[in-house]
Amino acid sequence: MKLVVSPPALTELHDTATFYTLKASVELGLAFVTEFERTANLVLANPLLGAVFRGSRR
Hints:
The chain is mainly α.
């Protein structure tokens, strides 16, 4: 499995990290990025993680 972050999503991640850095602290901005990376790696390592659903509705 390969992680693909679309350009708009990458912009939103960057903007959010910048917001947390400016409004709170550098540590909070870094913690946000670290948590995103941790979660992405968890999903990549466990692609079947999550709820099973059927049909077109979640």
